[in-house]
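Ticket #4471: structure output looks truncated?

Reporter: J.K.
Steps to reproduce: submitted the chain below (349 residues) through the standard prediction queue, then opened the result file.
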Amino acid sequence: MNDVMRSVHEYGKGHPAAAVAPASNPVVPFAAAGDPYNTDESYKAHIAILFVQHDYAGLEKEISSARATKARLQGGIWKIAMFYDAVGHAIPAFGGSTVDWDAHLADIKKWIAAYPESAAARVALAEAYVNDAWEARGHGYANTVSESGWNNFGERIQLAESALLDAAKLKEKCPYWYEAMQEVALAQGWDRDEARALFDEATAFEPAYYHYYRQYANYMMPRWYGDEGETQAFAEESAKRLPEPDGSIVYFEIASMLVCPCDEQNNDMDSMSWPKIKQGYATIEKLYGISRLKTNRFAYMSVVAKDKESARATFARIGEDWHYKVWIDHRYFEKAKAWATAAEASRGR
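Returned output as attached by the reporter:
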């Protein structure tokens, strides 16, 4: 652990503290008019195709540009985050339904061999080990995981940690290194001081990268290592810490983690400010446009907040374009949409 924390503290040395983009000069998500890869889904598919084709030069070009420009996609998600989401997941072969993690990991190692000084290749390897670990464990409660599942999980997370320590030795640095290490911290159950130190180093490296805040907020949730109310308090702290527009955006992003139709009894937005959440969503839309994922998130949050007007307007915008990451099951989407529609019908009588 001493070696890991040493890497955490030294990773950003020599990297100038990133300036948070002011509201008057936001990062523009669209690099060019008509860019076919300006949404999270299209960009992820584009990166996945480059990976499947073993176009490692193309991958290096993409991540280099994403880091240099700090570009965001429609809806505000950082391109960096979606890049690693694409290369960090094994996908089924054409026409198949199962994934081959060994083949996926072998392809990343070919990338490392082709570009031995690439930070992205090694961070991608770590991200793949993390995702493979969760597949081995399963996503159920701890008491549902078998002994072999725990063993496989621990081994893969250890491999992810080792890949990140190797990446830390390279001259090239990447903001996602910290996010991948946050995933390791959650899986290994780091103590609170260590997890906070990691978060502080991450945000010193790239203050406006909201994904760090989501990762730490998740760590602080009661189902992991925090107490009731700590995630909400962290959202308030973060909103005050960051200048606008980033404070509002981070507040919305953290709040969106507190609700899920799969566990309606434990939706925990009561101690959050609904006006601040709405402000955050409006800020995202103004600066970066809307995305399918975040519009669906806001629709469900409107239902939880019992804001019928916002719910009606957002469901009208969504139509039938529901997102599985938000609703889990189409039945939850239909139930919520019916509530919004009934509210509108009742108002018209």
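Triage note (M.O.): checked the attachment and the full token line is present. The chain has a mean pLDDT of 90.
Status: closed, working as intended.
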